[in-house]
Amino acid sequence: PAAAVGRHVIGALDDREALLDVASSAEVVTYEWEGVPASAARALEDAGHRVEPSTAALEVSQDRLAEKTTFRNLGIDVPEFADVPTLEALHAAAEAVGLPAILKTRRGGYDGKGQVLVRAASELDAARAALGTSAPLILEQHISFDRELSILAVRARDGDTRFWPLVQNTHRDGILRTSRAPAPRLEPAMQALAEALITKLLEQLAYVGVLALELFQVGHRLLANEMAPRVHNSGHWTIEGSTTSQFENHLRAVLGLPLGRTDTRGVVAMLNCIGDLPDAASVLAVEGTHLHLYGKEPRPGRKLGHVAVTAQDVEQLDSRLAQVTEALGL
Q1: Do 267 and 180 contact (CB within 8 A), yes or no?
Q2: What is the pTM of this model?
Q3: CA of 237: how far to CAs of 74, 92, 152, 309, in Å?
Q4: Reduced to 3 states, what is the DSSP secondary structure of residue 234?
Q5: Which of 28-37, 69-78, 81-90, 143-152 has the lowest mean pLDDT?
Q6: What pLDDT sits at residue 111?
Q7: 3-class SS at 86?
Q8: CA distance 215 to 52
Q9: Cα dist. 229→61, 71, 179, 209, 223 in Å?
Q10: Which end of the chain lies in a sparser environment, N or C, as judged by fewer CB atoms within 10 Å?
């Protein structure tokens, strides 16, 4: 997408010469996908280029064991977890962590990929085989949560930090389907707790830019699931629903500009368009809707765009959501 607004250098993500070429005319280097090789970002930093967010944040987010360990070391609650380098270690971890649990690859995997739910000890061998016996794995406790939430924050070079409200997310088949902002029945204490948790990460990583933290709410507790060092799908609603979108504030932060306000305009929901392109006329016939298409070819499970639904209150939002859901054939 950036090719539309700047010089386009084509090369592999770890092609050092291509990276140095494109960075040579850049004021700052940033990224919007945590799959970018950390070694590539590190090479640019070593060459004297400013990379924001830092390579340290990228490295932590790319290894689930490092990520969970970082959370725990900062006093952020997490589900129980264990490194499982061998089959023997996996069976021992299943007893320590408890079942059901989720066996995940430590690296890669998104939208439900690279993980297997294990309900009984008899399933451990097959789960490990399904993920590949050579892949580094982690076993994580399966959480019976009340709901899934996420918080997005942006931190400037001078440490100024702004937060968007907690968002309630709904997943199906491991893929984010809907986000609602602010999260329904959001208590000030829960918002304050989420802000405190993500602030620990921002400060530990000397972070600059937008950071997302995915959370499980269990009663009055928040357990960290994953972090994303980038603008995030659960924050796409901010384009229409916030005074300053996550995208604009990310650019303000990495460019050293003052951050914008993160007030919410009424109540907002975001629905992902998965697999098939929606009928634009049907969607946009609903009051308060905004359709964003990404220019991708349709295929099963692929995010092709999203619909933002804005409203003045929850009752109005629920009504409009029902209409959009029908228009999308959900």
Answers
A1: yes
A2: 0.94
A3: 29, 43, 12, 8
A4: helix
A5: 28-37
A6: 62
A7: coil
A8: 24
A9: 7, 14, 19, 8, 18
A10: N
pLDDT tens digit sequence for 162-201: 999 999 999 988 889 999 999 999 999 999 999 999 999 9
The residues that bridge with 21 in the sheet, in sequence order, are none
Please tell me the distance from the alpha carbon of residue 283 to that of residue 226, in angstroms, as a whole number: 32
Q: CB under 8 Å to 202, separation ≥6 — which residues?
A: 153, 155, 161, 211
Let me know: does 184 contact 168? Beta carbons within 8 Å: yes
Strand segments, DSSP code E, in 238-317 are 267-274, 289-293, 303-311
Which CA distances in Å does 202 have to 54, 157, 205, 246? 11, 11, 5, 16
d(CA 252, CA 87): 47
Q: What is the pLDDT of residues 72-84, one digit of tens each?
A: 999 999 999 999 9
Query: For residues 59, 50, 246 and 179, what is the CA-based torsion angle, rounded to 10 degrees?
Result: -10
Across the range 26-46, mean pLDDT stands at: 92
The set of residues, in sequence order, having a beta carbon less than 8 Å from that of 161 and lying 6+ positions away, is 153, 154, 155, 199, 202
Q: Which two tokens stand for residue 27?
A: 């004021």
Helix (H, G, I), strand (E, B) or coil at 85: coil
